[in-house]
Amino acid sequence: MLNSENGYEVDPEAVDWVALEGAQWRMPEGPGSSYGSRMDHPVVHVSHRDAAEYCQWVGKRLPGEREYEAAARAGRFHGDNRTLYSWGDEDEEAVVAKYANLWQGEFPDNNTALDGWRATSPVRHFKPNDYGFYDTIGNVWEWMRGGKKKARIVRGASFVDSADGHINHAATLGARATLHGSTGTANVGFRCAKSPKLKDEYTWVYHDEEVHGTLGIEDEFGAHHAAGVERGWEDRYDPYRMEDDDDFLNNEEDEDGYEDWDGYVTEITVDEKTGKKTKRKKRKVLKPRMRASAEL
Fold first, then answer.
1. All domains of the chain, ordered by start, with CATH?
2. Quick one: which of 73, 208, 243, 259 could link to 284 by a disulfide (CB 3.0–4.6 Å)?
3. Stretch (H or E) spanning 178
């Protein structure tokens, strides 16, 4: 479809946007333009895959939705402190212009740039939120992990949106939209995220002899032989790994029981009513905590 006023190709579902041949992240406004004077502006004209691949290249990843909103809300989650915007609930243009890069004026013909910018702004131009994150509202939409190829998720709204939604999207802390994964426009960018290194946590896995078989048999000479163990039982617990601890091999009794020759611990429990002792074999394993992402 052509816009009769300027001859540019436009999207029938978004007639205020034009397709400019040659526009890309190095030339945001097409041939003849450059990103050289905006090194501190968000990168735009990148698809979801481009963004995800870049994050992976630098050892990071795209943020998840819950993660993004938690960072954007900066503690404003419940009760009296929950607000529409990172600065509060005020949506007057004069107030909003101090905190976020959004549209002011009549869309799409006149952007008064009350906030100082008609397109993208430098990332650190506006004050960060209480957690130190910049531009969680406005400037550019940001790609998230997840979604489907034809409906990838973006959060945060952009410089062509308004705080109260009278122009395009309402740029609140919950602002959300979906785009085709191949989309590359002047108001869509991304940020990278990285999980903090967490302390290893361990748990115990019990061996059920009725299900998995016995772990070994001791003959009349005191030698141990494998017997009746269901193959692959330990493999089911990948990515667990055994605790690298010399105590597993010292056969010393502790408060829970005693160490076995085969690297397992025998836990001894006593029924308070009957006085009957029960023995169970267990081993210490590392808790898994990583969830795979299929975004690439």
1. 40-195 (3.90.1580.10), 202-286 (no CATH)
2. 243
3. strand 176-179
What is the C-alpha separation between 43 and 141, in angstroms, rounded?
A: 11
Distance between CA atoms of residues 260 and 279, nearest Å? 12
Helix runs in 104-237, H state only: 209-212
- Looking up tokens 């940001």 gives 142
CA angle 226, 231, 236 (to 5 degrees): 130
Specify burial of residue 213 (Cβ count, 10 A radius: 0-12, 13-18, 19+).
Answer: middle
Q: Which residues, 6+ apart, have CB-to-CB distance to 195 below 8 Å?
A: none
pTM: 0.68
How many whole angstroms separate alpha carbon 91 and alpha carbon 89? 6
Instruction: Return the SS3 of 157.
Output: coil
Model pLDDT, residue 81: 85
End-to-end CA distance of the chain: 32
Give pLDDT < 50 ranges for the chain: 1-4, 215, 217, 226-261, 293-296
The SS3 of residue 2 is strand
Cα–Cα distance measured from residue 1 to residue 239, given in angstroms and rounded to the nearest whole number: 53
Measured from the Cβ of residue 282, the count of other Cβ atoms closer than 10 Å reads 17
72 with 173: CB under 8 angstroms?
yes
> What type of residue is 65?
E
Using a pLDDT cut of 90, give the percent of the chain over it.
50
